[in-house]
Amino acid sequence: MYTHQYNVNENTYSSEVKEGG
């Protein structure tokens, strides 16, 4: 899993993390 280090891309990254795991 990824840590919350992408505050700027949280909107896009959050979705990718959930889909990509």
Automatic annotation (TrEMBL):
It comes from the Eukaryota. It comes from Zancudomyces culisetae. GO terms for cellular component: cytoplasm. This is PAW domain-containing protein. Residues 1-21 form the PAW domain. GO terms for biological process: glycoprotein catabolic process. Residues 1-15 have a biased composition (Polar residues). Residues 1-21 are annotated as: Disordered.
